[in-house]
Design goal:
InterPro entries: Glutaredoxin, GRX_PICOT-like, Monothiol_GRX, Monothiol_GRX-rel, Thioredoxin-like_sf. The chain is of the alpha+beta class. 53% of the residues lie in helices and 16% in strands. Helix 2 runs parallel beside helix 4. It starts with a helix and ends with a helix.
Length: 106
């Protein structure tokens, strides 16, 4: 299935990938907005985003790829980190900044 290969290529081809509703400049849901803010506050400079509202095939298939039902979905180093709640918890603990720093150095 081509869309699964595309998802895998995105996730493996960029250190930090966020599948979200909307764009970082114009998030289309509160969860995506809060996740982008946490990433920026944690020091992200190289964020690859995919707007699932403009990519219906990715929106339909990503939950099967990641085994995670909701958006946004954050991947670091090809690994699913989770959604908004997990990203915010990691941000609060300082762990998100560490993960982002390591991913951007790699």
């Amino acid at each position: 299935m081509a869309v699964m290969q595309r998802i895998q290529a995105e996730v493996e081809g960029h250190p930090i990938v966020l599948f979200m509703k909307g764009t970082p400049q114009f998030p289309m849901c509160g969860f995506s907005s809060r996740t982008v803010k946490a990433l920026k506050d944690a020091g992200v400079t190289d964020l690859r985003t995919i707007n699932v509202l403009e990519e219906p095939e990715i929106r339909a298939n990503l939950p099967r790829y990641s085994n995670w039902p909701t958006f946004p979905q954050l991947f670091v180093h090809g690994e699913l980190i989770g959604g908004c709640d997990i990203a915010l918890e990691l941000y609060e603990s300082g762990e998100l900044a560490r993960m982002i720093s390591e991913a951007q150095k790699a």
